[in-house]
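Why should sequence recovery work at all? Because a backbone constrains its sequence more than one might expect. Tight turns favour small or flexible residues, buried strands favour hydrophobic ones, and helices have their own preferences. The token representation captures these environments compactly. In the example below, the structure is given first.
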């Protein structure tokens, strides 16, 4: 009964209950579990870790296999595309995962595709961090940019087969350096901060290849103008919501519908990095998964949250989120699992894979080894129940 209530049948159940009382059947509660409004926002989700494998940092066609910061599942071909965040040679790998009832049996690199501009030349430097596969079989990639190097953040669409640039999406000005700062060395006053720009990217696409779909991009940390210097105040990240119509070409194919505020957890004691590393749409009703990752003196901390965006305030007309935001509603979140006891590495990538043999949904996560021999590219398999 509680599951039905979460799916929106509360009014129907309540009407039945009232009817039974009016008939004098002595029913006072109908056995309905008391479910709060907060609980009705979320799905009843759980995850179970099955196993993980380590992908060696070997050479493949003149590249080092590492720095994997995003992964997308191609259901039509039963293969995966994994994005490498090598700034000087941005690229993605085609992967095959052998999934058995006991977990991932093997992972193999099958191809590498470099990202190029519209002239076919390398698009470097590009700090590519997020990637999704669209229904029209293109890839949308988010890149962090670098205020120090005067490189703006970007959302771009690439051809899946050739890696060639197709479209640049428009970003609101608040994500960019102020015009007077672009050619100066003065203090920054707005825009993404160094190394915590667009990290997380996902789509919600219920239709076919010619149907509009929704694109969501989130920053790893707050914009410069949203940063509260008090360490006790959690980071306030920004979340963009686009409607993309593949029937139009160029930047005009996308419409920015809204923007929201994502409230991070307070950074763990001793953390030198605390950010939102990935988001994943799990239905068309505004439910997502999110990875919050912290790293510091206590090692790596990884938490998996469920998000509900339906009641979040639109922040697109708000210049700064500093200070008192009590009048705004952030994206709501609920802890699904603290993955830290599994001792994962630097998890930055997440996708829904195929259904497992028992019918449950597979969830794949991948760690970014930062091209560091002391870290690993781990590919994790989880069982996700409730979707």
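From this structural description, the recovered sequence reads:
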């Amino acid at each position: 009964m509680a599951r039905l209530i979460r799916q929106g049948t509360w009014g129907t159940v309540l009407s039945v209950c009232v009817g039974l009382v009016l008939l004098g059947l002595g029913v006072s509660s109908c056995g309905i579990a008391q479910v709060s409004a907060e609980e009705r926002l979320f799905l009843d989700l759980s995850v179970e870790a099955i196993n993980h494998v380590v992908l060696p940092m070997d050479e493949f066609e003149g590249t080092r296999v590492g720095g994997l910061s995003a992964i997308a599942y191609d259901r039509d071909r039963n293969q995966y595309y994994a994005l490498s965040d090598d700034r000087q040679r941005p690229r993605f790998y085609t992967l095959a995962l052998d999934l058995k009832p006991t977990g991932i049996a093997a992972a193999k690199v099958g191809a590498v595709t470099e990202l190029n501009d519209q002239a076919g030349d390398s698009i470097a430097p590009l700090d590519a961090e997020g990637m999704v596969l669209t229904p029209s079989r293109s890839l949308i990639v988010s890149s962090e940019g670098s205020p120090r190097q005067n490189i703006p953040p970007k959302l771009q669409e690439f051809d899946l087969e050739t890696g060639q640039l197709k479209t640049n999406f428009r970003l609101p000005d608040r994500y960019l350096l102020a015009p007077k700062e672009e050619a100066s060395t003065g203090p920054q006053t707005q825009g993404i901060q160094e190394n915590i720009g667009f990290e997380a990217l996902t789509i919600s696409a219920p239709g076919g290849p010619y149907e509009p779909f929704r694109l969501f991009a989130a920053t790893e940390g707050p914009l410069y103008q949203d940063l509260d210097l008090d360490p006790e105040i959690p980071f306030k990240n920004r979340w963009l919501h686009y409607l993309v119509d593949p029937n139009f070409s160029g930047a005009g194919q996308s419409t920015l519908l809204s923007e929201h505020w994502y409230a991070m957890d307070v950074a763990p004691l001793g953390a030198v990095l605390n950010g939102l590393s990935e988001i994943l749409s799990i239905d068309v009703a505004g439910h997502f998964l999110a990875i919050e990752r912290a790293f510091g003196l206590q090692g790596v901390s990884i938490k998996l949250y469920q998000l509900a965006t339906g009641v979040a305030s639109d922040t697109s007309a708000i210049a700064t989120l500093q200070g008192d935001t009590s009048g705004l509603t952030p994206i709501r979140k609920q802890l699904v699992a603290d993955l830290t006891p599994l001792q994962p590495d630097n998890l930055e990538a997440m996708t829904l894979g195929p259904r497992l043999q028992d019918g449950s949904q597979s969830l794949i996560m991948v760690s970014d080894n930062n091209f560091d021999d002391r870290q690993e590219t781990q590919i994790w398999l989880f069982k996700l129940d409730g979707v």
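A few observations help interpret the result. The helical segments are 2-22, 37-40.
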